[in-house]
């Protein structure tokens, strides 16, 4: 009755306009907006989002224009052609070109699988072109179908697009939720307008959409969200000609962080060096991403193009880690880590597997030894591989004030080296070092420059890299470890708290040169106090045999680039890859697993007492955190889905019926009890025989059913009900009798319950 | 006063000691059983006449001649041991032929009122539609007012006073159709109909060789009937029943050219009260209402304006449609 009545009358018609289709179109618009927003974000990060909106608009216009003139089959083919053209265009602009289609089909499939298992589009080369090619087909199809009022299909087209982006992990929860809500709205109101029916009839679609959203959110979590996409082809992600899939890493900039005093590894080296772990080139405003491919390590890597000095290091792993720390730039690797070692597009070393405790390896690095004078005249004639790899990329939405501030700082400097030094010094002098900062919203570089007074190395390095890029100077973010505690002439103990982030700037003919904008004194004292504390607390792993009892002298405190470049503290790394698949040198990529989430100076470790306890968030409070809006939103969504599913499968009706049958409810007056008992009797008889007809009295009903074998108890209940309702009432005993009789009748007719109750 | 009926009528004014429901039910059913000794195969109709009697209403019997209308009325009157008069309505019947006239008594030199046939507990008005409207209305006024006024003097009618009027539906061209306003005054209209073969055989078996009506003895008396009537008017009619009756009437108003008047709704509940008593209950249940609705409501409904078709189909639809709550 109730569902029917909604469909009656003039549903959704207000002032002569049919509202339902408009609402459904609004739903399609929302859905489209959700995935276009994701694509726009992708394009914006890589730097060029200006073309996306016109392309999307053109698709919508095309859909409007063609919605009446071509058939659905034609439109479907047209959509597929558009999608193929988009992909083809993307292939055309990537290094391998269209030839990939023939030479590396398996790799394309592998790439697709990797994408759908959590491989962010952001890590792909030319991600903005990808999003440009991806957008038109779903937009066109979904709007074409929506205008033809094929709501479900329209939502399916848009939903697939959103699903892909959810699977790649690029669509956040909010965007996904928005899209899903849009889809539900579109389908719900679309169906309402199509059939003049009730919204309850859209339950199947609601279930499907919610299921889709939940599964899609799950898939990346299962498939491997952060950097563990599933590659079907062994070695895929290596330097295939297609170069779509790049085994990369990303580093999200965190808020407050702590210090782990545990020893990570020890190094035997003639020189005190920064031990590089990972390099990142692509900046999204919130995180750092390394794009590009990796290849297996197969011999020597190219060193810096300019003057360099050979440094031999022997590293012993003390805490298992997924990293190959080495001074920049490594050129040769020997030892146990060799078999699993991989080389990034940026000349860094990473490892495919976790290095266990006790693993040793030897790295030979070529450290740039150019003087500041040499670097000043290095010029800006950057090789192609530098200009092509996003080393000057900044998010589209980076505020202008970053550039303006930078311009003010570097005023007077007329070459990249002086500019870099100016920026480095400015940061060191104007920002306080602190591990207790809350992560700002929006662009980290901008926030650090204008809104924050303090930060730690990640913030310093991020800001400096962004500022250099504003000036058009190729720079990249690097994470790794400071030299650590010097325990012997040539031995260093490196702890988790030595983790650090710095900047590398490229100079033509010399290669990558390290700059460290983080003020070293504060950092070092913070580190030392933590180690002291950990030693007092007798925490395991704080010391090796050689470092025990040694004073915590830091081997290198001066991190300033303003010192003469030819001093020993200077480190430069060069990279001058000439071919795509043969990186010659670079940094070590991929932070150790404990560290890889922050890449900060110091990293929270679960085993260590980290940071000042009294300032740990929530250390004084015992209240559980309220659920996040995301949690609430998802719970709501899942709830809606479950409700729709229950409605669809009739569970609600059945449950309601079950309750109506078995649950007498709280006792009231005798009359109320009898009425309730009679209702239960009605429910029972309706299930077993037929429903009481409208206009049929309960007495007639029971009498009619007695012909079908109903016994006198039902009649008795009917009589008691008559008296309770129409007569002068019933006594408590009679009411109890009615309830008892109905209980007995119900039990007899439901064997399972009878067994339980009797 | 020599008129026992008159005395009864005065006594009945208000404080009659009601019978218990059981006694009233027993009495009523005894009458029904007794009448069934004579009338074969019309149990339901007898019940209807009796509920009308107990509910202080009048009955219109619409049927062809010779199906036992008179016999029914006589049997009822004998069973309750009350006065019974029969008036044959003819086109030349005058109102005074029903109510009575003042006659000049030569001996006493005074006018003396000669009571008409309407002065009886049970009056059978045969073929009421054959008399002219003026005469009809004299009877109908008596039915409504329970009194007659002759030459300015008002005289009360006996209590109980029940009219069983018959309408001849055969010779339509020689009849004066009762107007709706007057039909409304009958609590219910029933049809006797022909007996089926078996019933007719049984009936003939009894009638041939001496009519059983002559041997019919009373099972109760007028005083008891009055007390039973008091019982009926005390029967509980709860809100759900009132609402149900109102919904039924409402349905007829929405689904027929002329629906049931509020007077009809009241009559329905009164008849239902009587039926409850016959069933031994002191409260009305929907089944009572449903049992009475066809006879109480049908003749008050004009299914389509301009026709004489009554509302029986409408009522039966109402009973099927209007939910019982």
Overview of the structural elements:
The complex is a heterodimer of chains A (758) and B (325). By secondary structure, chain A is of the alpha+beta class. Chain A has 3 domains: 2-223, no CATH class; 250-615, no CATH class; 651-757, no CATH class. The longest helix of chain A is centred in the first third of the chain and has 28 residues, at 19-46. Chain A is elongated, with a radius of gyration of 34 Å. Chain A starts with a helix and ends with a helix. Residues 1-16, 219-248 and 554-624 of chain A have low confidence and may be disordered. With 325 residues, chain B is an alpha/beta fold. Chain B has 2 domains: 30-194, 3-Layer(aba) Sandwich (Rossmann fold); 235-325, Helicase, Ruva Protein, domain 3. Chain B is built from 13 helices and 9 strands. Chain B has helices spanning 4-11, 21-36, 43-54, 69-79, 96-99, 133-145, 180-183, 197-207, 222-233, 239-255, 262-278, 286-297, 312-321, and strands at 59-63, 84-88, 100-105, 110-115, 122-126, 147-150, 153-156, 162-168, 188-190. Chain B has a 5-stranded parallel beta sheet with strand order 2-5-8-1-9. In chain B, strands 3-4 form a two-stranded antiparallel ribbon. In chain B, strands 6-7 form a two-stranded antiparallel ribbon. Chain B is globular and about 70 Å long. Mean pLDDT of chain B is 85; it is low at 1-13. Chains A and B meet through helix 22 and helix 23 of A and helix 12 and helix 13 of B.
């Amino acid at each position: 009755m109730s569902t029917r009545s909604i469909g009656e009358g003039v549903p959704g018609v207000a002032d002569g306009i049919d509202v339902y289709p408009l609402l459904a179109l609004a739903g399609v618009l929302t859905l489209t907006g959700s995935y276009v927003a994701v694509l726009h974000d992708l394009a914006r990060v890589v730097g060029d989002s200006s073309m996306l909106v016109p392309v999307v608009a053109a698709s919508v216009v095309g859909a409007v224009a063609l919605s009446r003139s071509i058939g659905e089959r034609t439109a479907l083919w047209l959509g597929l052609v558009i999608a193929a053209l988009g992909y083809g265009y993307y292939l055309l602009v990537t290094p391998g070109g269209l030839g990939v289609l023939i030479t590396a089909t398996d790799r394309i499939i592998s790439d697709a699988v990797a994408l759908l298992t959590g491989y962010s589009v952001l890590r792909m080369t030319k991600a903005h072109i990808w999003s440009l090619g991806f957008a038109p087909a779903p937009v066109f199809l979904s709007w074409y179908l929506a205008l033809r009022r094929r709501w479900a299909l329209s939502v399916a087209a848009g939903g697939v697009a959103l699903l892909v982006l959810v699977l790649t992990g690029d669509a956040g929860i909010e965007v996904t939720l928005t899209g899903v809500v849009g889809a539900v709205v579109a389908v719900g109101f679309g169906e309402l307008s199509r059939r003049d029916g009730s919204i309850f009839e859209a339950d199947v679609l609601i279930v499907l959409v919610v299921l889709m959203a939940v599964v899609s959110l799950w898939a990346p979590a299962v498939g491997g969200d952060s950097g563990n996409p599933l590659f079907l082809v062994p070695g895929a992600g290596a330097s295939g000609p297609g170069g779509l899939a790049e085994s990369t890493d990303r580093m999200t900039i965190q808020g407050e962080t702590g210090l782990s005093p545990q020893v990570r590894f020890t190094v035997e080296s003639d020189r005190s060096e920064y031990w590089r772990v990972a390099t990142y080139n692509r900046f999204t405003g919130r995180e750092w991403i390394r794009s590009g491919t990796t290849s297996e390590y197969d011999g020597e890597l190219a060193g810096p193009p300019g003057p360099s000095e050979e440094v031999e290091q022997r590293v012993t792993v003390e805490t298992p880690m997924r990293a190959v720390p080495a001074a920049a730039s490594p050129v040769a690797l020997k030892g146990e880590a060799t078999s699993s070692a991989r080389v990034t597009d940026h000349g860094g070393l990473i490892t495919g597997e976790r290095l266990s405790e006790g693993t040793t390896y030897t790295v030979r690095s070529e450290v740039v030894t150019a003087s500041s004078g040499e670097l000043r005249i290095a010029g800006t004639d950057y090789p192609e591989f530098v200009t092509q790899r996003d080393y000057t990329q900044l998010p589209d939405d980076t505020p202008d004030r970053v550039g303006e501030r930078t311009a003010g700082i570097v005023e007077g400097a007329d070459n990249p080296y002086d500019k870099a030094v100016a920026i480095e010094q400015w940061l060191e002098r104007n920002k306080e070092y602190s591990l207790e900062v809350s992560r700002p919203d929006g662009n980290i570089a901008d926030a650090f420059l204008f809104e924050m007074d303090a930060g730690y190395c990640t913030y310093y390095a991020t800001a400096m890299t962004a500022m250099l890029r504003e000036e058009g100077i190729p720079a990249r973010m690097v994470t790794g470890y400071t030299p650590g505690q010097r325990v012997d002439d040539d031995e260093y103990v490196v702890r988790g708290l030595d983790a650090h982030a710095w900047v590398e700037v490229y100079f033509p003919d010399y290669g990558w040169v390290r700059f460290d904008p983080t003020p070293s004194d504060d950092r070092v004292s913070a580190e030392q106090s933590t180690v002291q504390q950990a030693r007092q607390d007798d925490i395991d792993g704080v010391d090796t045999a050689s470092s025990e009892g040694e004073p915590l002298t830091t081997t290198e405190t001066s991190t300033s680039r303003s010192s003469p470049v030819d001093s020993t503290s200077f480190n430069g790394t060069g990279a001058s890859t000439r071919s795509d698949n043969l990186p010659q040198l670079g940094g070590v990529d991929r932070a150790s697993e404990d560290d890889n989430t922050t890449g900060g100076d110091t990293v929270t470790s679960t085993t260590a007492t980290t940071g000042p306890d009294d300032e740990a968030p929530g250390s004084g409070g015992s209240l559980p955190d309220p659920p996040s809006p995301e949690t609430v939103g998802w719970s709501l969504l899942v709830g809606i889905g479950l409700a729709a599913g229950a409605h669809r499968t009739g569970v609600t009706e059945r449950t309601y019926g079950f309750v109506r049958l078995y649950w007498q409810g709280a006792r009231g007056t005798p009359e109320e009890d009898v009425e309730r008992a009679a209702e239960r009797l009605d429910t029972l008889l309706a299930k077993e025989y037929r429903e009481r007809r409208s206009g049929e009295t309960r007495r007639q009903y029971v009498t009619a059913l007695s012909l079908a074998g109903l016994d006198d108890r039902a009649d008795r209940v009917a009589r008691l009900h008559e008296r309770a309702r129409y007569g002068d009432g019933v006594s408590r005993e009679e009411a109890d009798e009615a309830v008892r009789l109905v209980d007995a009748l119900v039990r007899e007719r439901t064997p399972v319950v009878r067994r339980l109750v009797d | 006063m020599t008129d026992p009926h008159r005395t009864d009528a005065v006594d009945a004014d208000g404080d009659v000691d009601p019978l218990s429901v059981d006694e009233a039910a027993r009495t009523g059913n005894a009458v029904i059983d007794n009448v069934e000794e004579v009338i074969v195969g019309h149990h339901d109709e007898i019940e209807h006449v009796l509920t009308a009697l107990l509910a202080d209403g009048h009955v219109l019997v619409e049927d062809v001649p010779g199906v036992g209308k008179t016999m029914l009325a006589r049997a009822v009157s004998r069973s309750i041991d009350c006065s019974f008069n029969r008036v044959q309505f003819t086109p030349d019947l005058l109102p005074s032929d029903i109510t009575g006239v003042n006659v000049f008594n030569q001996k006493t030199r005074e006018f003396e009122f000669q009571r008409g046939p309407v002065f009886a507990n049970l009056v059978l008005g045969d073929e009421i539609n054959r008399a002219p409207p003026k005469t009809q209305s004299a009877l109908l006024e008596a039915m409504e007012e329970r009194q007659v006024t002759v030459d300015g003097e008002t005289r009360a009618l006996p209590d109980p006073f029940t009219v069983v009027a018959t309408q001849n539906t055969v010779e339509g061209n020689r009849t004066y159709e009762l107007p709706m306003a007057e039909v409304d005054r009958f609590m219910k209209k029933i049809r006797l109909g022909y007996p089926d073969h078996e019933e007719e055989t049984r009936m003939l078996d009894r009638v041939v060789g001496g009519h059983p009506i002559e041997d019919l003895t009373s099972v109760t008396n007028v005083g008891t009937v009055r007390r039973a009537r008091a019982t009926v008017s005390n029967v509980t009619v709860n809100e759900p029943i009132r609402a149900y009756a109102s919904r039924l009437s409402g349905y007829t108003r929405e689904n027929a050219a002329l629906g049931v008047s509020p007077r009809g709704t009241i009559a329905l509940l009164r008849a239902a009260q009587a039926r409850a008593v016959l069933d031994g209950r002191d409260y009305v249940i929907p089944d009572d209402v449903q049992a009475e609705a066809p006879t109480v409501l049908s003749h008050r409904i004009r299914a389509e304006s301009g026709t004489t078709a009554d509302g029986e189909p409408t009522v039966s639809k109402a009973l099927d449609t209007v939910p019982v709550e």
